[in-house]
Amino acid sequence: MPEQRLVYFSANRLPAEPGVAMEQIRLILEKSRRNNAVANITGALMFSNGHFAQVLEGPQASVEATFERIQQDNRHGNVTVLQVRAIEKRSFANWSMAYLGSESGNEDIDRIAVESGFRPTSLTGDELFASIEIRLRRYTK
Ligand code: FAD
Questions:
Q1: How many Å lie between the centroid of ligand 1 and the Cα of residue 55?
Q2: Helix 125-140 crosses helix 106-116 at what angle (to 10 degrees)?
Q3: What are the backbone dihedrals phi and psi of residue 10, each rounded to the nearest 5 degrees, phi first?
Q4: Is residue 94 within 8 Å of 41, Cβ to Cβ?
Q5: What is the tens place of the pLDDT at every residue in 30-77?
Q6: Does the C-beta of 62 come closer than 6 Å to ligand 1?
Q7: What burial class does residue 110 get, using C-beta atoms within 10 Å of its C-beta: 0-12 exposed, 13-18 middle, 19+ buried?
Q8: For the whole model, what pTM was predicted?
């Protein structure tokens, strides 16, 4: 049975204070990694310029159920799906949820945002996926 990849971006609705936002991101990642490991989902989450972008990959039913929960989360809004497609092979097979950014402070996120020129609103699903994949590989080298 082929697996599925879903790519979306959304507007960040986290409180502006850096410490509060980072704590929420830490909680989101902790919850995601636990839930995704159980649901056989892998993927990556990127945060910059007031947006989230995420790739979810796994069995169709798991991706759909997980995305349904994510969509209803009021920590972000304007959730826009850019791509849903069958995949032969996972791209983030080793990551229950990889994160592009710092888990310890705001500076790294700003640096990555500047370096990446990340503008999810002007990208197609393929472009956003490739952008996350390339930056993740570079960042985790
Ligand atoms: P619980 O953790 O018990 O949560 C119950 C309810 O409370 C949910 O509706 C939840 O949205 C809400 N909630 C919990 N904590 C907070 C909080 N601190 N502030 C506001 N509302 C809160 N989940 C995954 O499983 N996998 C993912 O890959 C994933 N990616 C995410 C990416 C983004 C950008 C965001 C914003 C959230 C993501 N989440 C992800 C979290 C997801 O939206 C749900 O919060 C989570 O899956 C609910 O887990 P649970 O069913 O164990 O419920």
A1: 16
A2: 120
A3: -155, 165
A4: no
A5: 999 999 999 999 999 988 657 888 999 999 999 999 999 999 999 999
A6: no
A7: middle
A8: 0.84
